[in-house]
Backbone:
């Protein structure tokens, strides 16, 4: 059968979406392939279609046990014989599934990576004709990705044990160059065809806000968007419960979702949201995987997520139908602290050695920093995200809160010099708060105890507001003049680049919002 008729007969589509045909063609030609496409772009079709055209069986390695059932269900409905093999099967179901597989009853078999090492499975695989092995969520093989699964590392060993090497096709929505390299390396892809489709979602408006009172800001937004459907993501179950309760009290139709609720409640709340009975879903990041609701008009992050990948994935659930949608991030300094604690206290859920856990934590801190910069930048937010994913982008999108704000370039050289000298004078030993306090001439006990009120930069910015000094510091971090290093607690330090400013006549200018420019200065 020709691929277009397979596309039509089995999947009901008349044409391919961007990237799909190239991936399908390369897989069919027998070449290893890596497809990097955002969520919702249509990755499944890229391996399901070749699976139908190959002689042998296609194995799909996937970590998402909960989604396997759905996928297999829709394949079966489309008249494609498929099955899944994972820990949700009991022993007799497992043996039966394997027997059916041996009897050649399935064209596509979804399998959890842990199964690849069991004797029964290897025995089946060695005696079967396996044409294609697809590795879904392939970033799980990389320590640099956000959900590293050590069990993914055994995939190449499994492949080596097969009688004939099948075609390997890996897919992911994670596009950082580092992860991409790692996937090719760790999965042992042979001269793969690599395709990345654009990550830009033009219909999404991005905005970072720093509300004094997050709940008030949330309420105002929802009030203005009453009839629309949206998700409010919070970082903890407690916040979900609190925000949801308060929204209901204010008369809105909100439902909560997090791992602490019973399965029944979760399902009910999810259905209520999907079928438009409640138009607001308040949830932790446990909500959303595999949810296909196309008319979500806004995603509000009540707390800053732990990295850009999570953020973009969650925000990307808005506007799936292509109509304009908004992605708002409510940022507060506390969000950084909470995320730092979460990283410090995490121990990895699988049996990893100490060194690996430390390396992962270090990477997580780095990713958190990049997320935090997103909240501080005054440049185009879309450009920032796309650059993060290794894509070139224009520095003006016209559809984000920064592009839509009237900024003015302001010379902050003098302020920068004061801040930097202060950091230098105190021996680069303190965090941002302490530096701000010294510059503003605070009389707090720690300053007095450390005799910091005697240094020359003490009080040199006493007329400047705290938030302004913090903004300049954050800007200097963003520009690479300062860095935050973590020992026992975060400390601000000078970088080499700072020397250029301290000891030369180079100027630094920062984008400042117009009305905000004079805040904190003495009135004339
Ligand atoms: P991903 O795995 O990339 O997140 P899916 O494979 O789940 O995305 O596909 C997302 C949606 O797009 C599904 O509803 C699927 O039916 C639809 N889809 C995929 N390919 C096509 C196509 N060529 N034409 C129309 N719809 C498609
Ligand atoms: Zn922009």
Residues:
């Amino acid at each position: 059968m020709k691929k277009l008729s397979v596309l039509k007969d089995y999947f009901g589509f008349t044409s391919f979406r961007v990237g799909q045909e190239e991936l399908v063609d390369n897989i069919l030609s027998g070449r290893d392939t890596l497809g990097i496409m955002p969520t919702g772009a249509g990755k499944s079709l890229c391996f399901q279609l070749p699976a139908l055209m190959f002689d042998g069986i296609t194995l799909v390695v996937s970590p998402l046990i909960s989604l396997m059932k759905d996928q297999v269900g829709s394949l079966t409905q489309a008249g494609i014989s498929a099955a899944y093999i994972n820990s949700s099967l009991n022993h007799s179901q497992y043996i039966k599934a394997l027997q059916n597989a041996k009897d050649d009853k399935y064209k596509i078999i979804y399998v959890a990576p842990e199964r690849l090492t069991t004797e029964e499975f290897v025995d089946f695989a060695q005696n079967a004709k396996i044409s294609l092995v697809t590795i879904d969520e392939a970033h799980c093989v990389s320590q640099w990705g956000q959900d590293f699964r050590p069990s993914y590392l055994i995939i190449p060993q499994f492949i080596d044990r097969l009688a004939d090497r099948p075609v390997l096709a890996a897919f992911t929505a994670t596009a950082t160059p580092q992860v991409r390299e790692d996937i090719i390396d760790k999965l042992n892809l042979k001269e793969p065809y690599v395709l990345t489709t654009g990550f830009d979602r033009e219909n999404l408006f991005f905005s970072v806000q720093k509300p004094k009172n997050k709940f008030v800001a949330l309420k105002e937004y929802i009030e203005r968007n009453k009839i629309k459907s949206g998700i409010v993501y919070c970082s903890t179950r407690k916040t979900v419960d609190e925000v949801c309760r308060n929204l209901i009290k204010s008369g809105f139709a909100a439902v909560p979702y997090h791992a602490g609720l019973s399965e029944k409640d979760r399902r009910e709340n999810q259905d209520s949201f999907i079928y438009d009975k409640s138009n607001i879903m308040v949830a932790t990041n446990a909500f959303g995987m595999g949810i296909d609701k196309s008319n979500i008009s806004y995603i509000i992050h009540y707390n800053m997520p732990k990295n850009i990948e999570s953020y973009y994935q969650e925000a990307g659930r808005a506007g799936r139908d292509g109509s304009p949608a908004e992605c708002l991030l409510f940022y507060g300094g506390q969000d950084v602290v909470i995320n730092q604690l979460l990283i410090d206290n995490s121990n990895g859920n699988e049996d990893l050695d100490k060194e690996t856990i430390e390396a992962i934590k270090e990477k997580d801190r780095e990713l958190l920093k990049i997320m935090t910069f997103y909240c501080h930048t005054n440049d185009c937010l879309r450009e920032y995200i796309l650059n993060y994913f290794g894509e070139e982008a224009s520095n003006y999108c016209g559809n984000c809160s920064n592009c839509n704000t009237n900024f003015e370039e302001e010379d902050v050289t003098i302020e920068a010099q004061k801040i930097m000298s202060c950091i230098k004078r105190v021996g680069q030993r303190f965090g941002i708060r302490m530096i701000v306090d010294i510059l503003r001439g605070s009389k707090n006990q720690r300053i007095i105890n450390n005799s910091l009120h005697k240094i020359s930069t003490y009080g040199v910015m006493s007329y400047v507001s705290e938030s302004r000094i913090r903004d300049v510091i954050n800007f200097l971090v963003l520009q690479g003049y300062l860095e935050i290093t973590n020992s026992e607690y975060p400390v601000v330090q000078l970088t080499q680049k700072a020397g250029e400013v301290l000891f030369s006549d180079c100027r630094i200018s920062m984008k400042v919002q117009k009305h905000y420019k004079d805040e904190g200065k003495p009135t004339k």
